[in-house]
Amino acid sequence: MREVAILGVGQTPVREHWELSVRQLAAMAGRAALDDADLDRVDALYVGNMSSDRLSKQANLGTAVADQLGLWGIEAVKMEAACGSAGSAMRQGLLAVASGEMNAVLVIGVEKMTDTLGRETSAALATAADADYEVSQGITFVGLNALVMQRYMHEYGYQHSDFAPFPLNAHANGVKNPNALFQQAINQKIYESSRLIAEPMRLYDASPIGDGAAALLLVPAAKAPQAVRVIGSASATDTLAVHDRHDPLWLAAAEKSAHQAYRQAGVGPDDIDIFELHDAFTIMAALSLEACGFAERGEGVRLGQEGAILPNGRIPISTLGGLKARGHPVGATGLYQIAEVTLQLRGTAGAAQIDGLKTGMAQNIGGSGATIVTHILQK
Fold first, then answer.
1. CATH architecture of 4-117+207-378
2. Strand pairing category for 274-276 and 359-366
3. Domain ranges of the chain
């Protein structure tokens, strides 16, 4: 298998892009990545997206985006794995180049979520849960994560206020990211007094939806020796329903995919300088840190309390705002994460740049931990 490098990066701001269709939004990010790589043709296009058929009434999205980009004749496919769609598309593009079948692959993650009424968008998101045993009982993703958070607090003795360092860090970093939906800091008082949405979860425990697209251009590393390399990639699954898991407080798929990626890369948690985790909810940030080996079971929250997750900490997370402040256009999120790690390793992350980085990791979660994709990058 060949080593693969990221030659081009493209992003759109996360906003309410009412004036753009889903294919136009994807094409904007794709064209930016092509321009960044100084290429005008690729062998294949993989598009990560969760709900274009439901929310934008557009299926066959891979071909629609290829058409919008003028890339007629190439292989073009949409990949769907709920909120892990973009990370899964990245993995397929990576395998295509690593195998030698393709020499240049464009991977795009895109989601349009604000053109529909809230109840329609929520119904589309709910399809990522277990339709038979969760959705049919009226549960939502906010509700599922609130139940997990409540159990975590009970088991390990935390209070709601103990989770504040995660959104405070994300919002402080979002100020430095012009693509972020939210570019204002918050404080402890704002966090604790925000609206209760599902006990014990408050508004600032949940990431916002939005419209957005991110893209990467992948080539063999031998053709781009100075580019950021992908040195580890793995995907794993857990039960679809949270209640079916042996331990609902452990992200088994995160543990498996992270450790498979560590083995491929020849690194461990101590070698990772930056971690773009899937902070769709504050509880998921804590659970991800534990499952990936950065903290012992029940100790993920303490990394926030100790400042280890800050830009100058041991394992910086959400360095350009994360899902919490950058926003969470679900089918695009995984590629925003990898794009942001790439920019940090390139030294081109602007005001959010952290110096001295060598190795970074991004982890994209689909559902409530049912599909988890991990990538490790190195400059």
1. 3-Layer(aba) Sandwich (3.40)
2. parallel
3. 4-117+207-378
User: What is the distance between the alpha carbons of residues 328 and 142, in angstroms, rounded to a whole number?
Assistant: 14
Q: How many residues does the chain have?
A: 379
328 catalytically annotated: yes
DSSP state of 13: -
DSSP 157: T
- Distance CA(142)–CA(124), nearest Å, equals 14
Catalytically annotated residue among 160, 171, 259, 328: 328
> Choosing from 83, 160, 259, 292, which is the catalytic residue?
83
| Contact status, residue 48 vs residue 86, Cβ threshold 8 Å | yes
pTM over 0.90: yes
pLDDT at 310 over 90: yes
Q: How far apart are CA 141 and CA 143, in angstroms?
A: 5
Tell me the pLDDT tens digit for each residue of 89-102.
Answer: 999 999 999 999 99
Number of alpha carbons in the 13 Å side-chain half-sphere of residue 294: 28
End-to-end CA distance of the chain: 19
